[in-house]
Design goal:
Blueprint (H helix, E strand, L loop, with lengths): L4 E4 L3 E7 L3 H6 L15 E6 L5 E10 L2 E7 L3 H12 L5 E4 L4 E6 L1 H4 L12 E4 L2 E5 L8 E6 L3 H7 L3 E2 L3 H9 L37 H9 L5 E8 L8 E4 L2 E8 L5 E5 L13 E3 L2 E5 L1
Parallel strand pairs: 1-11
Antiparallel strand pairs: 1-7, 2-5, 2-6, 3-4, 4-5, 7-10, 8-9, 9-10, 12-15, 12-17, 13-14, 13-16, 14-15, 16-17
Length: about 290
C-alpha cells in the first residue's frame, strides 16, 4: 500500500444508529465494549446468535450523537432487520446511509501525516468532519475513511490521493487472514471465536453480557476452541462445502470460495504447526493455507 493511494470500497455500506438509548442498545448485543468508542477510538465488533455463532461483523465509529456501522453492503438490509428485532422499546433510530457515505482506505503513512495522528489500531481523528481511523482489526490494513459522498472527490484532491483498484487492498486483507467479502457464507456455521474475532480485537471478555456471550466465554475459559478460519490458496476454483484433506484425513471445510477462499480448519496442535506450509487436497486439487 503506497502513501498516495486510496481504495474506494463500493461493496461496503454504512448504518447510522442514534437516539437516547443507542449506547445501551449496542452494548447489550455486540461482542465489543461500546464504552471504548469515542471521537479518538473506533472498534471492530460482531453480532452473534444466542448460541455464539457468527451473524455479522462491522466496525463501529462515533459520529455526532450516534454511531456509524461500517459493514458489508450486501448484508446491510439483513443487519438492519436483525437490529430491529432487538430494538423493542429502545429510543433509537436505525438509518441506512449507504447512499450518503462511502467507505474508503488510505495508507498508514498518509494517515500519520495528519496532525495528532497515532499508529494505533482503532485510533480515530476527524478530517473535514469525517472520521479517519487506523483499522481496528490490524494496522497492516491501513486507515479507513467513512466520508460524505458530497465531499469525497474534493477530499481526494485536497489530500493528493490517487484512486487505486481495490483488488490490491482485498488481496492484502486475504493474505492477513481477514475475510471481508461474502462473509454471509459464514452465517450460523461458525462460532465467533472460530472467526478469529479475538485476534482481530473484536471481543471484549470483560464487558459483561451480550447476545452469544455465554457460549463464547465458555469456549474461551475452558479452552474449547477446536477449529479456526484460515485463508486457502489454490490454482483451481474451490467450492463451498468441499472437504479439506491432509494425508487422506479430513481437517476442514471450505466456507467461502470466490474470490478469496477461506476454510474452517481443525486445530490439532495449539500452535497450528501441523499444517503450516503443508500440501492439502481439496476436490483432488492441491491447496495450501496462507
Amino acid at each position: 500500500m503506497e502513501k498516495d493511494q486510496i481504495f474506494i470500497l463500493k461493496d461496503r455500506g454504512v448504518i447510522y444508529i442514534n437516539g437516547k438509548d443507542t449506547k445501551e442498545f449496542l452494548q447489550n448485543i455486540v461482542t465489543n465494549d461500546i464504552n471504548k468508542v469515542n471521537n479518538t477510538y473506533s472498534c471492530f465488533s460482531s453480532l452473534l446468535t444466542p448460541q455464539g455463532k457468527y451473524l455479522f461483523d462491522f466496525i463501529i465509529v462515533k459520529h455526532k450523537q450516534g454511531y456509524l456501522l461500517d459493514c458489508e453492503l450486501n448484508q446491510i438490509d439483513e443487519l438492519i432487520k436483525r437490529l430491529n428485532v432487538y430494538k423493542l422499546n429502545s429510543k433509537i433510530e436505525i438509518l441506512n446511509l449507504s447512499n450518503e457515505f462511502q467507505v474508503a482506505v488510505i495508507s498508514n503513512e498518509k494517515f500519520l501525516s495528519f496532525k495528532n495522528s497515532k499508529n494505533e489500531e482503532g485510533y480515530t481523528l476527524t478530517y473535514r468532519d469525517d472520521p479517519f481511523f487506523i483499522d481496528p482489526r490490524n494496522k497492516k490494513l491501513g486507515a479507513r475513511v467513512i466520508i460524505n459522498l458530497e465531499k469525497l472527490y474534493l477530499s481526494i484532491k485536497k489530500l493528493e490521493l490517487k484512486l487505486t483498484e481495490p483488488k490490491i487492498y482485498y488481496e492484502l486483507s486475504y493474505k492477513l487472514g481477514i475475510p471481508q467479502i461474502n462473509t454471509k457464507n459464514l452465517k450460523e456455521k461458525i462460532f465467533g471465536l472460530e472467526c478469529n474475532l479475538e485476534e482481530l480485537n473484536g471481543i471484549d471478555f470483560k464487558k459483561g453480557c451480550y447476545v452469544g456471550q455465554e457460549n463464547t466465554a465458555r469456549m474461551k475459559l475452558k479452552n474449547k476452541l477446536r477449529k479456526k478460519l484460515f485463508p486457502l490458496k489454490s490454482d483451481k476454483k474451490l467450492n463451498i462445502g468441499s472437504e479439506v484433506n491432509y494425508k487422506d484425513v479430513k481437517i476442514g471445510t471450505i466456507l467461502i470460495n470466490e474470490p478469496y477462499p477461506f476454510a474452517l480448519i481443525k486445530l490439532f496442535d495449539p500452535d497450528f504447526s501441523e499444517f503450516k506450509d503443508k500440501e492439502l487436497m481439496v476436490d483432488n486439487n492441491t491447496s495450501k493455507i496462507i
